[in-house]
């Protein structure tokens, strides 16, 4: 099971893996996404090939919302980059053949190739009895790289809850930022007030000594 006490509210660690995006692959680092909310979700290609397209469709229907919320989607499987590249190409071909005008259903987000199960082990989603089978989980990571929330099922089942949670987090972030700004202004005002008081006091003392 996923342990909230171990994982939540801790910084995301560094993982030595590759990712695929738009048919190209590169070294992956979470630092690239600092400053944005990240939705990290796990899926399987090898054991459940029919499930992932449904998740893509679910995400695609909500892409505009995620874009408006400035959220990054990251999908994790224990496949290699070549399998993931083939999946992207296959997905392009399927949807182009079915609907050559509308290509809204697409894999246009990074696919992480967790072939050594580094991320899966960290989040405790790897099935030791069946190494190719992940538990379905969704992780929300805040702009500071801190793990905020997890859901113990697929992105498809939790899409509304994920969006709601991010909106709540962003609202809280905005309130915190507003409070910090007010505090900063008050401190600045207090410093200015103290300076003016000292200046007035010095002038008064100077006047009395004349």
TrEMBL record:
Recorded GO MF terms: thioredoxin peroxidase activity
Classification of source organism: Eukaryota, Fungi, Fungi incertae sedis, Mucoromycota, Glomeromycotina
Domain Thioredoxin, first and last residues per copy: 6-171
Alphabetically ordered keywords of this record: Antioxidant, Oxidoreductase, Peroxidase, Redox-active center
Protein name: Thioredoxin-like protein
GO CC, alphabetical: cytosol
One Pfam family from the record: AhpC-TSA
Gene Ontology BP terms: cell redox homeostasis; cellular response to stress; hydrogen peroxide catabolic process; response to oxidative stress
InterPro entries associated with the record: AhpC/TSA, Peroxiredoxin, Thioredoxin-like_sf, Thioredoxin_domain
UniProt keyword Signal, yes or no: no
